């Protein structure tokens, strides 16, 4: 059963407090991605937030979430390398599809080794959807997918009893809504000028 009162069973020891500090750092960085226009900047900032999230999940003992963060970190490093080597592309190429398939296979393998029950799959669903959004060539899709991804991470953070994870993911969800609305307004203005 999903624990509504998050800190009920969590000892407020130094390990938990440090995990929450890294959670705060992670969400500050991640929120910045929703206001960034460059895909490269999104990937770089997201990578830095993943490192903070990895540390937080180690401290919380949230192994499925940790595994998803590691897969995402490698995913982001590949995206940076690919853009640097081949440059930006506005269309999806065959190698992009192969990359997406490899990442999904890595997600499945990581899940098999870290599965902690049905609720741990919330992090898997969030990671899978986020991977699809960041794989897209347009930031509008990324910002739209931030909505269901946010809801899934809120639920996962409640499951692993991360108080600041729930609070800040909720704030990030609001940021993603604002970022998406701004993107839609910008595209409407652009289409009116044509």
Secondary-structure blueprint:
Blueprint: H1 14-33, H2 39-60, H3 63-86, H4 94-114, H5 121-135, H6 139-159, H7 163-193
Helix pairs in contact: 1-2, 1-7, 2-3, 3-4, 3-5, 4-5, 5-6, 6-7
Task: Summarize the structure in words.
- It is a single chain.
- The chain has 194 residues and is an all-alpha fold.
- It has one domain.
- The chain contains seven helices and no strands.
Features:
194 residues, mainly alpha, 7 helices, 0% strand, globular, disordered N terminus
Q: What's the assembly state of these chains?
A: single chain
* Nearest-integer average pLDDT: 85
Contiguous low-pLDDT stretches (5 residues minimum) are 1-9
Instruction: Outline the biggest β-sheet.
Output: none
Give the SSE string: HHHHHHH
Class from secondary-structure proportions: mainly alpha
Shape: globular
**Overall number of strands:** 0
Strand content: under 5%
Total helices: the number is 7
Q: How many discrete domains?
A: 1
Give helix % range: over 70%
Distance between the termini: 53 Å
Short description:
By secondary structure, this protein is an all-alpha fold. It has helices at residues 14-33, 39-60, 63-86, 94-114, 121-135, 139-159, 163-193. α2 (39-60) packs antiparallel against α3 (63-86), α3 (63-86) runs antiparallel to α4 (94-114) and α6 packs antiparallel against α7 (163-193).
